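In this section we walk through a basic example: taking a raw amino acid sequence and producing a predicted 3D structure, encoded as discrete structure tokens. The instruction is simple. Fold the sequence below.
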Amino acid sequence: MGIPKQEAFQIYLQRGGMPFLYQTEMSDETTTKYLEDIFDSIIIKDIARRENIRDIELLRRIILFLMANMGNIFSAKSIVAYLKSEKRTISLETLYNYIEYGKRAFLLHTVSRYDIQGKELLQFQQKIYLTDHGFREALLGSGRSTINQTLENIVCQELLRRGYAVRVGKQKTKEVDFIGSKQDTRIYIQVSYLLASPETEEREFGVLESIRDNYPKYVLSMDPIQRNRSGIVHLHIIDFLLGSW
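The resulting token sequence is shown next.
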């Protein structure tokens, strides 16, 4: 008999989705070591050796920096400034190459921002997500303090798995977490850990209410009680992952 879905999801939040982790009983310590070993293998074999990178330590630090900032707007200048403060230097070209190598190794995924009103892609304003958030948990131990980022990452990967082209939306001064496009259809999604206050609820629903089209709109959270509003469907994130929408 399988474990309850809520318990299974809590394990998934901590460990990610690497298949081997669920084929055998593994302690938290063993899980962390396994994910660290896979990460090191990707850095050394799939990126450094393949792309002839000599400064593996710098490559690793950049990838870890991107992991720590997953779901945030990517700023090449902020990374260069960070490395400068650490007495290291890197050119913008090399930095962008490292990100591309991370994508080729199926470690990173970039998502562009899209101006919903202007219907234009916003150049040089991308977010970076991980193909598996378990690496971040194992290497950085972020835990509950960054659960919103983790949930966003999970939703992004689920949309990609279902064949959607994924972008982040800009609606005037507000942001839509995800726009998923597939053929002639589109969905809008907001992700929040909990709608714990009227202000949070207004923020998540309000931006979707301001989009004047008839495509499906969803707010995903971990709240036990769902509350729809203005035609916007509120789902528990587990139900979204299980296809209950």
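Looking at the output, two observations stand out. The chain has a mean pLDDT of 91. Residues 47 and 53 are 8 Å apart (CA to CA). In the next section we compare this with other chains.
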